[in-house]
From TrEMBL:
Ranges of residues in domain GFO/IDH/MocA-like oxidoreductase: 146-296
Protein origin, superkingdom: Bacteria
Keywords of the record: Oxidoreductase
TM segment ranges: none
Identification of the protein by name: Gfo/Idh/MocA family oxidoreductase
Species of the source: Microlunatus aurantiacus
Length: 416
């Protein structure tokens, strides 16, 4: 990192200038305004996208110094200290390994690769290079979620008995929805398991503890869709007519979980359910946690609210709806008081802050590549269980930031 007048100015490289790449960029730009005490002011150095117009957009609109169609030029740039990898799943492993080998700290979107093997490859490369990593598990950064983690860790809910996690979206509910890369195993790997299930299991493990065993079933609701050429649209596109192609991965998953670890969630059981074809929900990403002394629930569609039942003796009061406030996580960085709402972009700003603070060595509360491996291990085990009908044990992942697990966040950890 270069230094100027005692203020760190990490050079930022961006790989893929789509919606998520733009969001990463806005998050970097917001860090010095939102967290001035960090003394970190990122510089937008280089951006890459295979579509030349997007690479030029990164220069003309986003403010990067240079644009290119070859991501390797971003990694070779000596002014680049940190890299955001926002390309499609099938490129994550290649780019993550390349970033590590180039000595660049990287922030990568999930899932990291098309399966457990690719996630482990990236983790090994990051460990060998000693680079800091952060993974795009943005829902864990909601201040209301951070407060749930405190409630669980402090024993306010007692011993956790059971968990219910539902990640339902309707972005592919229309059978005319385009057959983008997300529906093809060669490009995406799994379907809704990797897309939404990876987020859901990360939320479960961050709040409750590591998943030790899973049994699952999956289904593909819409088996054929109209073909969309790569790079010509998004998975939200709806097409009339045209050539049809096969959907190669699952639209829906239901699973039973057992939790391990050593905290209040050890020994808990739960359910995890995800769908990308639900008719009705837009982003119903929620979790309910039940303990011997209370319970709590949260839903991303109302991300600034919690429903809390505290104490068995409070049965006459029922659930209390609580608005997030400046005592919850980083809420006070964005809004002055309860009732004022934060949004999705703010969660990415928190993620960027945690990443850059870990790179600077001032804090280690970021998600890491070990968390991506843990998530991928769940996806792999759920696929195996869906095929066999049996319970499948998950491997222990060193360095994971799961609740009740040893190891500090923010540092690369060896992954077997």
């Amino acid at each position: 990192m270069t230094e100027s007048l005692g203020v760190a100015h990490p050079g930022v490289g961006l790989i893929s200038v789509g919606w998520m790449g733009k969001l990463h960029t806005r998050a970097y730009q917001a860090v010095p305004l939102t967290y001035p005490e960090l003394g970190i002011a990122p510089r937008l150095v280089a951006a890459a996208d295979t579509e030349p117009s997007r690479a030029q957009y990164a220069v003309d609109v986003l403010g990067y110094a240079t644009g290119t169609t070859d991501y390797r030029e971003v990694l070779a740039n000596p002014e680049v200290d940190v890299v955001s990898i926002c390309a499609p799943n099938f490129l994550h492993a290649e780019m993550g390994v390349a970033a590590a080998e180039a000595g660049k700290h990287f922030w990568i979107e999930k899932p990291v690769g098309r399966g457990l093997d690719e996630a482990r490859d990236v983790a090994r490369a990051a460990d060998a290079a000693g680079v800091v990593t952060t993974v795009g598990f943005n829902y864990r950064h909601a201040p209301a979620v951070e407060h749930i983690r405190e409630l669980v860790a402090n024993g306010r809910l007692g011993r956790i008995t059971n968990v219910r996690c539902v990640f339902f979206a309707g972005y592919s509910a229309d059978p005319r929805g385009a057959l983008s890369w997300r529906f093809q195993r060669a490009y995406a790997g799994s379907g809704v398991l990797g897309d939404l299930g990876s987020h859901a299991v990360d939320l479960c493990t961050y709040l409750v503890g590591p998943v030790s065993d899973v049994t699952a079933l999956t289904s593909t609701v819409h088996t054929r869709r109209p073909i969309l050429p790569m790079g010509s649209g998004t998975h939200f596109a709806v097409l009339e007519g045209g050539e049809q192609g096969d959907v190669e991965n699952e639209d829906y998953v239901a699973s039973l979980l057992r939790f391990g670890g050593s905290g209040p969630g050890a020994g808990a059981v739960g359910t995890l359910e995800s769908s990308r074809v639900a008719v009705g929900p837009d982003c119903r990403y929620g979790i309910e946690i039940y303990g011997t002394e209370g319970s709590v629930s949260w839903d991303f569609e109302r991300l600034n609210e919690l429903k809390v039942f505290s104490g068995r003796g409070a049965s006459e009061l029922g659930y209390v709806t609580v608005n997030a406030n400046p005592t919850y996580g980083d809420f006070g960085r964005f809004q002055p008081g309860a009732g004022c709402s934060m949004g999705f972009d703010d969660l990415k700003t928190i993620e960027a802050k945690k990443f850059l603070a870990a790179v600077a060595g001032t804090a280690h509360d970021n998600s890491t590549i070990a968390d991506a491996v843990a998530s991928a291990a769940f996806v792999s085990a759920a696929e195996e269980s869906a095929a066999s009908g049996q319970w499948v044990a998950l491997p222990s992942v060193p360095g994971s930031t799961a609740a009740g697990s040893p190891g500090a966040a923010g540092d690369p950890a060896p992954v077997g």
